Amino acid sequence: MALPHIMERSAVTEARPDRSPAGSAPVISATDLDLTFRTNDGPVHALKGVNLAIGKGEFVSFIGPSGCGKTTFLRCVAGLEHPTGGTLTVNGMSPDEARRARAYGYVFQAAGLYPWRTIGGNIRLPLEIMGFPKAEQAERTRRVLELVDLAGFEKKYPWQLSGGMQQRASIARALAFDADILLMDEPFGALDEIVRDRLNEELLRLWDRTGKTIGFVTHSIPEAVYLSTKIVVMSPRPGRITDVIDSPLPRERPLDIRDSRAFIEIAHRVREGLRAGMVDD
Amino acid sequence: MRALGPVLVVLLALLALWYAAVPVMNVQETLTRAERAGAVIEPASAVERRDMASIGLALRNAGQLGEAWSLERPRLPAPHQIAAEIWASTWDEEVNGRRGIVQSGSFSNRSLVYHAGITLTATAAGFAIGAVLGILLAVGIVHSRVLDLSLMPWAIVSQTIPIVALAPMIIVVLYSVGVQGLLPKAIISAYLSFFPVVVGMVKGLRAPDAMQLDQMRTWNASSAQVFWKLRLPASVPYLFASMKIAVAASLVGAIVGELPVQQGGLGARMLAGSYYGQTAQIWAALFAAAALAALLVWFVGWLERRTLRAMGGPA
């Protein structure tokens, strides 16, 4: 499937001077990242000494217990939180510059569709805000709805869709303006296991077709292992990275790959990493 | 339809209570008339009766109270007397009266239709001013902390002053700068109606949660875009809830504004009734005001249903 707009954006990114000739410069790069919230009970170290490089086209999952800073890290990348130490670059820019350049689409845990807009209207929303011409808005809306299998639902209102369909619509909305990074904060956390499996499969297919770089926060070990090329295991107090696992699984992943030996081994290593993080408590 | 039973029971209970109260409230006048007609009243002295409690007096002369429900100038008119007065001052006056719309081509100034029309005009004008003012204030308060701190306390204080005390002064001040007629009444009406709109609209404009605002930031939306695309549509249900309260308050404001002005309207009609001891006329005007209020609230509710349906709500 030809996606001319993505091609254009990618060409721009590739032309950036700071990219190495091999094309392997990280899209997201964090060095000694710290974030300390000041609260009435004293400082809370949400992130401490986080080092991470995410390459173009990678699917990176962040997994860990509550308070480990996985969402906070994603929000830092999005420019929604501001680190108190270290450096963080997105496409070679500061996160705020990247946000203003609309370098990423962000999918929240709740679909957050506006009830007064149709599904099509909700997907057009960021396009309207970014000032795309009307005809292009319609074209892009049609295309991303097809991408998430919601063609024909353009004129429906959110309440007429199931939770899983709503979340797919919200992914379509994040894809509509063709940012080459997709940040997802527990997008399937509120859905049941069956719907979640299906959406995981669809997300992989979508990632394969679009070649986007995806940052994905989750609580679920199978979900993280199934989806990712790289799994970042984190632990709380202070929020930090305890393990980074490069997955040996192939890009092509049928659902039953979860019964394979390799899959179980990675899941085991993730579980070990999570347990190691808890020892300090 | 299943709700019809309970509704009727409450209505009948209220009517029964009213009819039971009528002879007690009107006992002095009724007994005086019965005595003049030759009945023996207990106690016989009118001076003694004057100082007695109404209930005791009514119980001791239970047989002589027949006329209590049909007095010409009762302290408390019976419901059927009020119904008759409403009929006489609406349909009968307009259709058969010399000054009615059938014979003169314009509404009679002795008819409730005419006075309700005057009140409705002032209410509508006041509600429009109040709603627009309320929305503008709310927008300012939501977007500026300075306005929040400097305006909100005044809006609250404004509602603690009894409107009956303030209304004559507003009219006098406006008259002295040459403003009279509809506008002073509309301003008093707006004075009562802007407040619920401010409170509801501030709440509505602040209804979008942190996630929705973060989402707007990820798209690098301007605050104008956040306002038009998120805050304003999200506030619509709150706006209509507060407008239902505001439209009823507008009516109260318009009626209060008509008391000192005395140029027609249901308020003027009530005051005239009390000058001349025409309690039935006061009650008829009261019921007309209540009907008008119900009509206005229903109208806002109808507008609300239409708007929310147009905004994609379940039909």
Automatic annotation (TrEMBL), chain A:
PROSITE patterns: ABC_TRANSPORTER_1, ABC_TRANSPORTER_2. InterPro entries: AAA+_ATPase, ABC_transporter-like_ATP-bd, ABC_transporter-like_CS, ABC_transporter_ATP-bind, P-loop_NTPase. GO terms for molecular function: ATP binding; ATP hydrolysis activity. The keyword Acyltransferase does not apply. Residues 30-257 form the ABC transporter domain. Residues 1-26 are annotated as: Disordered. It comes from the Bacteria. The keyword Nucleotide-binding applies. It holds the Pfam family ABC_tran. SMART domains: AAA. Keywords: ATP-binding, Nucleotide-binding, Transport. Belongs to the ABC transporter superfamily. This is NitT/TauT family transport system ATP-binding protein. It comes from Wenxinia saemankumensis. The lineage of its organism: Bacteria, Pseudomonadati, Pseudomonadota, Alphaproteobacteria, Rhodobacterales.
TrEMBL record, chain B:
One of its GO terms (cellular component) is plasma membrane. It holds the Pfam family BPD_transp_1. One of its GO terms (biological process) is transmembrane transport. Keywords: Cell membrane, Membrane, Transmembrane, Transmembrane helix, Transport. InterPro entries: MetI-like (IPR000515), MetI-like_sf (IPR035906). The keyword Chloroplast does not apply. It comes from the Bacteria. It is found in: Cell membrane. SUPFAM superfamilies: MetI-like (SSF161098). Its main location: membrane. It is a multi-pass membrane protein. Belongs to the binding-protein-dependent transport system permease family. PROSITE patterns: ABC_TM1 (PS50928). The chain crosses the membrane at residues 112-142, 154-176, 182-202, 281-303. This is NitT/TauT family transport system permease protein. CDD domains: TM_PBP2 (cd06261). Residues 116-304 form the ABC transmembrane type-1 domain.
